[in-house]
């Protein structure tokens, strides 16, 4: 299954150790709602119990980014949207993430391979 998300999740590094943790929680909730809406268009509903996942972050510019700071929110949103059962190692057999430059475009491409 392939899923394209046009929004990037909030970067947790922007909020750690700062007084605006509440703002991160609000952005995280909004992102989870966005992923749930995208999941409504997936038929049949997957809810993978064991899978491999490849996540490609497409960035609109060449700034260096730490994709791991985006991943926690993304995986939590996929679980909440019931696309994957959980984000632990028993469900995610292998997880690969990469970032690529895609001039002027920013989105996430998620490929889920059921096992």
Describe the protein:
- There is one protein chain.
- With 115 residues, this protein is α+β, with helices and mostly antiparallel strands.
- It has a single domain (2-114), classed as 60s Ribosomal Protein L30, Chain: A, CATH 3.30.1330.70.
- Helix content is 28%, strand content 27%.
- It contains 2 helices and 4 strands; from the N terminus they run E-H-E-H-E-E.
- It has helices at residues 21-39, 68-80; strands at 2-5, 51-59, 92-101, 107-114.
- The chain has a 4-stranded mixed beta sheet, with no helix packed on it.
- Helix 2 (68-80) links the parallel strand 2 and strand 3.
- Helix 1 (21-39) crosses helix 2 (68-80).
């Amino acid at each position: 299954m392939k899923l394209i998300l046009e929004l990037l999740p909030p970067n947790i590094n922007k909020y750690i150790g700062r007084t605006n943790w509440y703002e991160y929680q609000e952005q995280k909730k909004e992102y989870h709602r966005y992923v749930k809406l995208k999941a409504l268009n997936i038929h049949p509903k997957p809810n993978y119990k064991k899978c491999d996942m490849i996540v490609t972050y497409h960035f609109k510019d060449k700034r260096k980014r730490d994709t791991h700071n985006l991943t926690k929110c993304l995986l939590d949103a996929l679980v909440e949207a019931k696309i994957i059962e959980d984000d632990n190692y028993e469900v995610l057999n292998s997880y690969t993430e990469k970032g690529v430059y895609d001039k002027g475009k920013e989105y996430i491409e998620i490929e889920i391979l059921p096992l």
